[in-house]
Amino acid sequence: MLLVANWKMNMTRAQINDYLDVLSASPIWPALEEAGIEIALAPSSVYLDHLVRSIREKELPIRVVAQDVSTRTSGAFTGEIGVPNLLDIGVSGVILGHSERRRFFGETDEDVCDKTDLCLRAGLMPIICFGESSADRKSGRAFDVIKTQLQPVADRANLLREDGVYTALFLAYEPIWAIGSGIVAGATDVCEVTAFGFDGFTWPERPKFLYGGSITSDNIVEISACDKLSGFLVGSSWLDPKSLLHSAQKIASVIKEGSLSKRAH
Ligand SMILES: O=C(CO)COP(=O)(O)O
């Protein structure tokens, strides 16, 4: 299981330090390792380097993930951060196509494909977000929208495979109506969408699915009943390290009891 905390445009340097102090004081790590649970933190880009260094200093088994990356590799693109920059400082993955980037910053499916291409060629793990709006769902167009988002990604992954590129993808189902709304999708809905994601496309490498949208330590176990999920991408709730630890501990307990497989990624 991969648990990713997307801090979005929150957290100061001091708050990040406090967050890591809480994680590092926790005795949970051996249990997480045993359960095959991995944690990743996605800070604002200005703190990526600081976070990578602090995690190394504290010897925490945590991945650092960026919230976006440029469609360009390097050159005269003021304000952009390229894949080589992220790799240079020890970032291991990047969130792509988040609905907030699509909505507020005009990120297109084509951008998502170009970014995915650069990441996969360079060995950076892409976490590609997709999901329908409330209007899409109400009008019965949810699966059409999801198909529009995922088909180009699958096509690009197949082209990359022809070039001999390793094409392991994380696909994060984040229905827009569930993000920050307190309304979490039901395990059945999540399962239906992930089944469509697996079977509705030809993938060169079987993708792993995450779910995001109003997850808390109170509902995470319920949603993980969808056995096609390999993890979660969480915003507000995991701005609090205690909530992240509590959620991780609950998932670890269920895995230990045997009612949830490790779903290794
Ligand atoms: O957008 C999200 C994670 O990327 C989900 O946000 P919330 O967990 O705040 O609903």
UniProtKB/TrEMBL annotation:
<dbReference type="GO" id="GO:0004807">
    <property type="term" value="F:triose-phosphate isomerase activity"/>
</dbReference>
<comment type="similarity">
    <text>Belongs to the triosephosphate isomerase family.</text>
</comment>
<dbReference type="InterPro" id="IPR000652">
    <property type="entry name" value="Triosephosphate_isomerase"/>
</dbReference>
<keyword id="KW-0963">Cytoplasm</keyword>
<dbReference type="GO" id="GO:0006096">
    <property type="term" value="P:glycolytic process"/>
</dbReference>
<dbReference type="InterPro" id="IPR035990">
    <property type="entry name" value="TIM_sf"/>
</dbReference>
<dbReference type="GO" id="GO:0019563">
    <property type="term" value="P:glycerol catabolic process"/>
</dbReference>
<dbReference type="InterPro" id="IPR013785">
    <property type="entry name" value="Aldolase_TIM"/>
</dbReference>
<dbReference type="InterPro" id="IPR020861">
    <property type="entry name" value="Triosephosphate_isomerase_AS"/>
</dbReference>
<dbReference type="GO" id="GO:0046166">
    <property type="term" value="P:glyceraldehyde-3-phosphate biosynthetic process"/>
</dbReference>
<protein>
    <recommendedName>
        <fullName>Triosephosphate isomerase</fullName>
        <ecNumber>5.3.1.1</ecNumber>
    </recommendedName>
</protein>
<dbReference type="GO" id="GO:0005829">
    <property type="term" value="C:cytosol"/>
</dbReference>
<keyword id="KW-0312">Gluconeogenesis</keyword>
<comment type="pathway">
    <text>Carbohydrate biosynthesis; gluconeogenesis.</text>
</comment>
<comment type="subunit">
    <text>Homodimer.</text>
</comment>
<keyword id="KW-0413">Isomerase</keyword>
<keyword id="KW-0324">Glycolysis</keyword>
<dbReference type="GO" id="GO:0006094">
    <property type="term" value="P:gluconeogenesis"/>
</dbReference>
<comment type="pathway">
    <text>Carbohydrate degradation; glycolysis; D-glyceraldehyde 3-phosphate from glycerone phosphate: step 1/1.</text>
</comment>
<dbReference type="Pfam" id="PF00121">
    <property type="entry name" value="TIM"/>
</dbReference>
